[in-house]
Design goal:
Blueprint: H1 3-28, H2 50-58, E1 62-66, H3 71-74, E2 81-84, H4 93-104, E3 108-112, H5 127-131, E4 133-136, E5 143-145, E6 153-155, E7 161-164, E8 170-175, E9 182-189, E10 192-197, H6 217-226, E11 235-239, H7 247-254, H8 256-273, H9 291-304, H10 308-326, H11 328-332, H12 335-346, H13 350-357, H14 365-381
Parallel strand pairs: 1-11, 2-3, 2-11, 3-10
Antiparallel strand pairs: 4-7, 5-6, 8-9, 9-10
Helix pairs in contact: 10-14, 12-13, 13-14
């Protein structure tokens, strides 16, 4: 078979297999459309009033989102509306004074009632205290909300309940059937209004029992009712987070895909570059010499290199050192007189003592050993 025919056969088989695969895919796979709701990303993940802002803008209302309350930058006008989600007790006295002055001349403020807190409650200069609003310990119960053409909804099932003292002008109230516990109240303050809500879940993007958020018609209807006083007049300012989150907490919770590998790389680098503080297991003990072995090896080294007189001199100096301590008179003498005094003290023959005190020849090993032996005996007998 020629090469051209072989390549053509292979190409034909490949085309046939591809055609069979395509035919099987078209016969076995059904093509249809399906809508999938993707998880939120971007601004909706951190701005719970994002859906409310976009809804207001589509209705032709001017709406702005803000993380913090900044009265100087907001430049509030009498027809504006401010919606605040965070604890109003965190406002500073100048902010409380500025908000009340603005509301008094036609502003509309929407607040969320916070939970009771012994440390924050009771401040006479606080916003809630000046409005005569106090947190109630009565547990929340669902309130029915009816919209024409829609099934009955249950609202304010969560959140806090509150009370309003008798000196405050209440324009609209909605509670658990008694005036003592309220879930929503609209207060009159000058020519403006302040709405206090036990829960703002229906204004948010959608969470918990309000998963549909403003996509539900009853929720949109309730939101329009809350924002009705200045709706269509001015700008709606949506303050969704008065207290800035901690930078370290944000990095810890959201930045771990970056800092965790970097931390592991840093620890690995430190481990590779650090000095060893000790072995994991003790090293085996090597062969060690005793002191006598060291002395013997040192003597053999000196003898090997022709320095035997140094060995004899060391032993002789050791003998003379003890002689100065035991027989100082004999040690003070020199020459034959010293040898005679040592012989008399040890009761040895004079010739033997003289032989021990004479330096042996360099290459005479027998004489070296003999005289070192005599010096050691003389030293031991002193």
């Amino acid at each position: 078979m020629s090469a051209r025919l072989r390549y053509g056969l292979i190409a034909g088989i490949g085309v046939l297999v591809s055609a069979l695969v395509v035919a099987w895919v078209f016969s076995a796979v059904e093509r249809r459309k399906e809508e999938i709701t993707l998880p939120a990303y971007g601004e909706p993940t951190y701005n719970p009033l994002y859906a409310l802002r976009e809804t207001l803008r589509r209705d032709g209302q001017k709406a702005e989102s803000r993380r913090q309350l900044d009265l100087a930058d907001m430049k509030l006008q009498p027809g504006d509306t401010v919606v605040m989600l965070d604890d109003p007790r965190l406002l500073s006295p100048p902010q409380v004074s500025g908000l009340l002055d603005w509301v008094q001349f036609g502003g509309h403020l929407v607040l969320q009632m916070p939970e009771a807190d012994e440390e924050l409650d009771g401040d006479d200069a606080g916003l809630l205290e000046q409005l005569g609003v106090e947190t109630s310990e009565v547990p929340a119960r669902c309130l029915p909300w009816r919209v024409n053409g829609q099934e009955e909804h249950q609202e304010f099932c969560s959140g806090n309940r509150f009370t309003v003292d008798g000196s405050t002008r209440v324009e609209r109230r909605w509670g658990d059937g008694t005036d003592a516990t309220l879930a929503w109240a609209r207060l009159r303050y000058g020519t403006g209004r302040i709405d206090v809500l036990g829960s703002t879940d229906f204004l948010r993007n959608g969470r918990g029992e309000y998963e549909t958020g403003l996509r539900d018609i009853p929720h949109r209807d309730l939101a329009r009712l809350v924002l009705a006083p200045n709706y269509g007049k001015g700008t709606t300012h949506l303050v969704y987070e008065m207290q800035m989150p901690s930078l370290w907490r944000t990095l810890l919770k959201q930045g771990w895909p970056v800092w965790l590998p970097l931390l592991l790389a840093l620890l690995a680098w430190l481990w590779a570059r650090s000095q060893r503080f000790g072995a994991l297991q003790p090293s085996p003990r090597g062969d060690r010499r005793s002191l006598l072995e060291h002395v013997r090896a040192s003597g053999e080294h000196l003898h090997r290199y022709g320095k035997s007189p140094l060995l004899y001199d060391a032993v002789r100096q050791s003998f003379l050192a003890r002689l100065r301590r035991r027989a100082p008179v004999a040690a003070a003498l020199v020459g034959d007189a010293q040898a005679q005094a040592i012989a008399d003290h040890l009761q040895w023959p004079l010739a033997r003592v003289q032989s021990a005190l004479q330096v042996p020849p360099s290459r005479d090993d027998n004489a070296l050993r003999e005289r070192i032996r005599l010096l050691i005996q003389m030293r031991n007998q002193l």
